[in-house]
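Two quick folds needed for the group meeting slides. Do the first one here.
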Amino acid sequence: MRNLSRYFNSSPVIIRLTVMMYVRYPLSLCQVEDLLSGRGIDICQETVRFWWNRFGPLFAAEIRKRRVQSHSYSQWRWHLDEVFVRINGETHYLRRAVDHEGGVLEVFATKRWDRNAALQFLRRAMKRYGPASVIPSRDECDRQYN
């Protein structure tokens, strides 16, 4: 990631600017190409698409990692979610770690409900994102408000 210019003719700054413009703002590939040509950067829309496919996930992972490490949100929370989904007519169990903004942090799907796999998924999520927010049970809520 540090040596983007090693394999590409453009500088890493231009690659990052292009990908962030396309992801951050509701722009089409042609609009990003036009904005960059206004700044004197001559690239085609296929280059924008290629860079977005190649570096978009890397930049997103880097941003997510920095956000979690710095705890830039005062109320950083995440929770586990389990849903049933049908894939090719078969029921699968989909487990997700979701942050307080609704962004999916981790995804894990299995054909059968497996306690050990669920615990392993929970441990991996806690190691990466810290402890999940504790949601009190119904009995605890009743005792607290009565």
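Then this one, please, same format:
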Amino acid sequence: MASATWTTDTLSNNGGLAERTLARLLRTRQVSLASASRRIERGLPYRLFTELCGRLRLTQAELARLLRISESTLYRRRAAGRFESTESDRLWRYLVLYARAVEVHEEPAAAVEWLHAPASALAGAKPLDVARDGPGLQRALGILGRIEQGVFG
């Protein structure tokens, strides 16, 4: 049985750009749910962290804080070249959020601006800040879905 390709079908109706963004970040042709799970279990490479910092316009310390990783742990992960599975799972949330924001806003710069801006639908919190856990990520993705559908209230 072939593994399902990761799409944003559960997040949006048009897929495509988010999947391509994730594939570029992961340096692969296709992102499947099974391969994403395997990558997370093995540990995502440290270079993904640094690349995402650049794309999100965050310092390494800022992204580490969002991922709940201490400075000393971050130093060890840099030396090892990859994150542990639980840290990779948290990093994956931000990869998905970034990819989905790029898809909805159609431009990386607009996506990053939205991710850094306080949102009234999040009680004034920034999408980057609420995505620190699974439910928070779902809230931010839900807002992106509403924006995509033209529902801004």
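Slide caption for protein two: The chain has one domain: 17-148.
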